[in-house]
Amino acid sequence: MSTGTGLGGATAQPLTLSKLDKVYSSRGRESFHAVKAMDLAVQPGELIALLGPSGCGKTTTLRMIAGLETVTGGSIMIGDREISQLPPGKRNVGVGFESYALYPPLSVRENLGYGLKARKDPQAAERVQAIADRLEMADLLDLRPAGLSSGQKQRVALARALVRNPPVLLLDEPLSHLDASARNRVRRELKVLQREFGYTTIVVTHDQVEALSLADRLAVMNAGVIQQFGTPDEVFDDPANLFVATFVGEPQINIIDGVLTGDGTVRLGSGTLPITITDQSAERSVKVGIRPADAALGTAGDAGSSDGLAVTVRFYEHLMEFGLATVDIPGVDARTVIQTPAVQRLAPGDQVTLTAPADRIYLFDPTSGDRIR
Ligand SMILES: Nc1ncnc2c1ncn2[C@@H]1O[C@H](COP(=O)(O)OP(=O)(O)OP(=O)(O)O)[C@@H](O)[C@H]1O
Ligand SMILES: [Mg+2]
C-alpha cells in the first residue's frame, strides 16, 4: 500500500501474549523469574504503554517478542501466527531499542536504508528522507553514528524501527535521552505516525506522563506481573491495587493508615471522612488513598467543620498554577499533601479543614494491597 507520503503503510495486526514466562538461569547463579505468566492482548493498531519500575521485566518482555531473548513458556501471536520460536528476522517486528547497534562505518542514511535495500525496496531513499523529516533529523542523515549525541542516536533508532513499516512496533524508552522540548515534539509526532500507519505498538517507559499521553491503554507492571491493564482514565480513576495507585499519579497519592468503621466512614487519626463502599463489615484496618488533587482545604481558621478533618498546614509550596500544602492530620504519623488552587495562599501553622469527595477516597487491604470496594 502506498499513501503518497513516501512512507507506505503497514497492515494492522493484533499481538497476543499468553502465559508468557521468562526465567533467567545461568550456571552458578540463582535463577530469576523476570516475567510471570503474562497475558496481554493488543488490538490491531493500538498503542500500549508498558509502565513499571526499574527491573520489573519490561525490556525482557519486549526482547522476547522481538526474538532477542528466548521464551521460557507461553506463546506470542501476531495475527494467527505463533512467532515465539521464529528467528528475529522472520517475525516482522520493528524494534527501537537504544542498545540496538548501528553499523559504525555507514552514515545514518545508509543505516536507515540498509534493511530496505536488502529487500530491494525501490522507494528506499524516499522513505528514509520522509521519516527523517518527520522525526526532525534530516540534518543527521549524512553523519556517522559515532558523531551523534545520545538523543540523536535515539532518534535514529526510532527512525530505523519505523522506516520498515512493521505491523508490530516495539519501542523501549524511545525518548528518554531527548531534551524536554524535543521530547514533547517527537512524542506527538510518534503518536501521529502510529495513528497514520496503524502499527500495533508497545512502548516501554517508566515516565508516566509519556505513558498517559501516548497510550490507548496502559499495562502497569510490577515484579514480572501485570497489575492492571486499562485506559489511562481507568488506571488513574479506578486503580486495581495499592501498587497501581501509588505508581500512577503525580504528585503521588497519599496513603494513610485508617480504620473502616462500618458506618459509612473511615477513621483517620482522631477524625473521620465519609466514604462510599459496599464492603461494610466489622471494623478493620485499611490503607486509605487520597489523591492530592481530589481533596480540598477550607480557608484558614475554619478547622473543625463536621464532614472534614481539622488539619494543620506544615509547609506550603506555591507552584504558580496551583499550590501544594503539606498538612498534619491529628493522630496520623505520615504527612499528607493536598493540591490547592493558585489563589488559595496558605502558611505554616494555618488550621484548616480537609475534605474529599466520598467516591474519591480509595481503600486498600493493608496486607494484600487489593482494592476494597
Ligand atoms: N540476562 C539476564 N540474566 C539474569 N537476569 C537478568 C538478565 N536480564 C535481565 N535480568 C533481570 O531481570 C529483571 C528484569 O529486567 P528488565 O531489563 O526486563 O527490567 P526493566 O523493567 O526493563 O527495567 P528498567 O526500567 O531498569 O529498564 C531484572 O531484575 C534484571 O536484573
Ligand atoms: Mg528496561
From TrEMBL:
Database matches in InterPro entries: AAA+_ATPase, ABC_transporter-like_ATP-bd, ABC_transporter-like_CS, ABC_transpr_MalK/UgpC-like, Mo/tungstate-bd_C_term_dom, NA-bd_OB-fold, P-loop_NTPase, Transp-assoc_OB_typ2
Keyword terms: ATP-binding, Cell membrane, Membrane, Nucleotide-binding, Translocase, Transport
Domain of life: Bacteria
Matching PROSITE patterns: ABC_TRANSPORTER_1, ABC_TRANSPORTER_2
Single Gene Ontology MF annotation: ATP binding
Chain ranges of the ABC transporter domain: 18-248
GO cellular component: ATP-binding cassette (ABC) transporter complex, substrate-binding subunit-containing
Protein name (database record): Carbohydrate ABC transporter ATP-binding protein, CUT1 family
Species for this entry: Microlunatus soli
